[in-house]
Amino acid sequence: MALTGNTLILILLAIIVLLVVWLIYMEWRLRKLLRGKNAATLEDSIITLVGQIKELEGGRRDIEAYLRGVEQRLKRSIQGVRTVRFNPFKDLNIGSNQSFSTAFLDEEGNGVVVSSLYSRDRVSVYSKPLNNHASEYDITDEEREAVAKARPGKIL
Asked: Helices (H), strands (E): how many in the chain?
């Protein structure tokens, strides 16, 4: 079967029509892709996106630096507070649990323990600095208990 000139022209015309339809469809998809504020070309869209990504990366670095500072401040803040009430005169069977020791500790065990000793005629208040859950001054059993209970993250 030989192709005549008219048949060949019709086939070529059909191919051209299909190519024109395909070109129109691709142009429509390209316009849809480039739709936006001022995006006349794909290059403009890409340049805009790259700029926005750089801004986001800069913002992320700023937030990470801020959070590192917050974490450092948080480590030095009071995170554990516990009070132990006691009677310093229990061996004498007098008084009640009016005396107390309260420990205030940061994440690393630094802080202070404050104690109050109550008696009928006076109240005395003492404080002792703490470094890594210990003090350079002698601490009582009640103060030691308050420090142990105040350890940050300790669940009682």
From this structure: 3, 4
What pLDDT, on a 0 to 100 scale, did the predictor assign at position 53? Answer: 95
Q: Which residues pair with 26 in a beta bridge?
A: none
Domains of the chain, residue spans: 80-149
User: Are 40 and 34 contacting, i.e. CB atoms less than 8 angstroms apart?
Assistant: yes
Number of other CB atoms surrounding residue 148 within 10 Å: 13
**Strand-strand pairing, 99-105 and 80-86:** antiparallel
Q: How many CA atoms lie within 13 A of 17 on its CB side?
A: 6
CA–CA distance, 145 with 118 (Å, rounded to integer): 18
Is 156's pLDDT higher than 50?
no
- In terms of C-beta distances under 8 Å and separation of at least 24 residues, what long-range contacts does 87-91 make, across chains too? 88/117, 88/118, 88/119, 89/119
Cβ-contact 45, 36 below 8 angstroms: yes
pTM, to two decimals: 0.58
